Task: inverse folding
């Protein structure tokens, strides 16, 4: 069978078609990233009037700073908790919706709505719910002997931003899990049911292994979400407090650079954060992807 190939007479047309995306990538990613790398090797006054090359000084000071090292630990805890909670709840909801026949579309629409909420709005919403003076959740927790106050208790503040960030991301994960479960052939689950396998066994032996590509993709997306897109939640709720308890890496870049006016250290932190994400993504593709069944 002869295959037909489309040949463009204008050799520059392909480059012209991708030019808008390349220009946007250069202006909004490559150029700012290069400027951050450049600033991380310099010391400059807060107004940017004079700069001095200092080499690796900012990087060396970062890993000697106990506050920065503590921020790395807080970010790791935050990332693990948000990823596990958002993906776990999304999978449970996707399984529940997949069992519905008539009302599945309505439930899916309702569960997707939170994804349209911006991180700042999500943070403010949960801040009101957890507000120690006017929030309904602290009022309920008092009946269980919990004196909730995220303004004074660092553990409470961390729980607040974990809940807000997880709630914001559940809808995104839910969409992909639902799509992944719909792509699982019904003939496989029906054959397992005929052989006597119950719903629980059918899910863990057939459905969940076939969801591994979706799970792997969402794992990478969620880690990147926690590292970068949760800034608005922290800024709208705790502002890194109390006593640096929620000052995760992405917010520390902002607080040191824009509030503390330490541009060099802030730039070094942004470079280190970017390297952390790149390294983590490499490890995921190098080792975790081996368990993915395509």
Result:
């Amino acid at each position: 069978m002869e295959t037909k190939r489309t040949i463009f007479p204008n050799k520059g047309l392909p480059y012209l078609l991708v030019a808008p995306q390349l220009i946007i990538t250069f202006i909004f990613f490559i150029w700012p990233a290069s400027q951050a790398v450049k600033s991380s090797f310099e010391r400059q006054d807060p107004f940017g009037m004079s700069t001095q090359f200092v080499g690796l000084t900012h990087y060396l000071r970062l890993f000697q700073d106990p506050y920065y090292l503590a921020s790395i630990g807080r970010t790791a805890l935050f990332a693990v908790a948000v990823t596990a909670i958002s993906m776990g709840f999304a999978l449970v909801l996707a399984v529940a919706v997949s069992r519905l026949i008539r009302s599945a579309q309505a439930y899916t629409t309702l569960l997707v709505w939170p994804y349209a909420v911006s991180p700042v709005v999500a943070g403010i919403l949960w801040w009101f719910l957890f507000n120690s003076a006017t929030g309904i959740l602290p009022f309920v927790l008092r009946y269980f002997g919990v004196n909730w106050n995220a303004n004074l208790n660092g553990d409470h503040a961390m729980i607040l931003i974990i809940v807000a960030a997880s709630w914001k991301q559940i809808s995104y994960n839910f969409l992909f899990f639902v799509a992944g479960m719909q792509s699982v052939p019904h003939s496989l689950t029906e054959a397992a049911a005929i052989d006597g396998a119950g719903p629980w066994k059918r899910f863990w032996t057939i459905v969940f292994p076939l969801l591994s590509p979706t799970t792997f993709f969402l794992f990478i997306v969620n880690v990147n979400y926690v590292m970068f897109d949760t800034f608005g939640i922290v800024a709208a709720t705790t502002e890194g407090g109390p006593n640096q308890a929620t000052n995760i890496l992405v917010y520390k870049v902002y607080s040191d650079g824009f509030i503390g006016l330490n541009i060099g250290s802030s730039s070094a932190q942004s470079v280190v954060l970017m390297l952390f994400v790149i390294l983590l993504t490499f490890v995921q593709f190098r080792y975790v992807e081996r368990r993915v069944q395509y």
Q: What stands out?
A: The mean pLDDT is 86.
